[in-house]
Amino acid sequence: MRKPDDRTDRWLVVGAGPSGLSVSLALRRAGGAFEGIEAGSAVGGTWNMDNPGSGMYESAHFISSAARSGWADLPMPDHYPTYPRWWEIRDYIHGWAAHHGLARHYAFDTRVVNAVPVGSGDGELWDVTLSTGEVRRYRGLVACPGFQRVPNVPAYPGTFAGEARHSQTYKSAAEFRGIRVMVVGAGNSAVDIAVDAAVSADRAASCAAWSAA
């Protein structure tokens, strides 16, 4: 087994979305040594549409008001609409991270392949295997990879000749042109996508829940 690179003098922060960036700033302010990794090519997490695993789509927007959201030390710009569009949130996150110089703490285009606790109790460390092939041992690990990165696709009986997909793979209403669409679910993304389908698809329907019983 490959001997881990000893980095037990620092913590690892996984993810450069809003949570990971907030943790990184908190660690730095507390004087804690750390470094971060991010699967995408820049900070922003799911709000970067081109990030691997991003569930962002063209019609997405924030669901809480700009005046009541964001970081207290750098509020969202006054010219933002009440419910900002996805790219405005992306740009805001980029600006806040740049304001605090957080990107320099991160290695981008890098994933955690495996993370295993080593030891027990107060002496517990973490052996982390990266997509680069490196194995590192850290003092601790803070996981902020985003809960929407891996889609939860339901199983259903019978056969279906059409395309079944998760909202995480959806990007644009143009994808619905010339087809009939059923949207299953009534969460925020389902409602947005149902509206897009109603405008662009040949025919659109929706239902609030799925049952395979």
Mean pLDDT: 91
Would you count the extended β strands for me? 10
Q: Give helix % range.
A: 10-25%
How would a crystallographer describe the biggest sheet?
A: 6 strands, mixed
The spatial strand order of the largest sheet comes to 5-2-1-8-7-6
Write structural notes for this entry:
The protein is α/β, with parallel strands linked by helices and 213 residues long. The chain is 19% helix and 24% strand. A 6-stranded mixed sheet has the order 5-2-1-8-7-6, covered by helices on one side. Strand 1, helix 1 and strand 2 (34-37) form a beta-alpha-beta unit. It is globular and about 60 Å long. The chain starts with a strand and ends in a 6-residue tail after the last strand.
Give a brief description:
The protein contains 3 helices and 10 strands; from the N terminus they run E-H-E-E-E-H-E-E-E-E-E-H-E.
Keywords:
single chain; 24% strand; alpha/beta; 213 residues; two-stranded antiparallel ribbon
Write the layout of secondary structure elements.
Layout: E1 5-14, H1 18-29, E2 34-37, E3 70-71, E4 74-75, H2 86-100, E5 106-107, E6 112-118, E7 125-130, E8 135-143, E9 180-184, H3 188-200, E10 203-207
